[in-house]
Amino acid sequence: MKKYSVLGIVLALFMVMSVVSFSENQDAYTIMIYLNGSDLESTYDTLTNSFAGSATTDLNEMIEGQATNGKVNVIVQTGGTKDWANDYVDPDLTQRFELINGEFVEMHSMPPQNIGYKKNTFRFYRMGCQKLYS
Question: Could you say which of 10, 34, 52, 122 is the most buried, measured as most Cβ atoms within 10 Å of its Cβ?
């Protein structure tokens, strides 16, 4: 339980720190989301005979949100689940996407990573910072 509490705190801090402005003269922001599908995505609902797909619902809400405010850049890393309720996330990989014009465009994919491992979270954050400032 303590492990999950610490992980929750780290992820919460990560999310707060990840909203980064490009510069003081621009209105664009980048939001980095480290999305562990886990039970959110792959829990099987016996009533509907389908996977819950809650993480996919979150991804769809990001697409809708960008449509209303194109000044927000979104970078997502996915992983940690057996199945996804969409066509673009591969459950056999850890993937990074950028939301561009209402579509998630794959930036990078790698073999499955332990989503709960803090070094993987740091690598994602570092990649996002390098992308912003390169």
Answer: 34
Query: What is the mean pLDDT, run by run of 10 residues, along the chain of 134 residues?
Result: 51 48 54 85 74 83 77 87 88 93 92 89 86 66
Whole-Å CA distances, 63 to 24, 54, 66, 106 = 25, 14, 5, 14
**The two three-digit tokens of residue 58, written as one number:** 């979150």
Give me the domain span that covers residue 122. 2-133
CA distances 76 to 47, 54, 100, Å, are: 30, 15, 12
User: Which amino acid, residue 106?
Assistant: E
Angle of CA points 109, 92, 16, to nearest 5°: 55
Q: How many CA atoms lie within 13 A of 125 on its CB side?
A: 16
Start-to-end CA distance of the chain, whole Å, equals 39
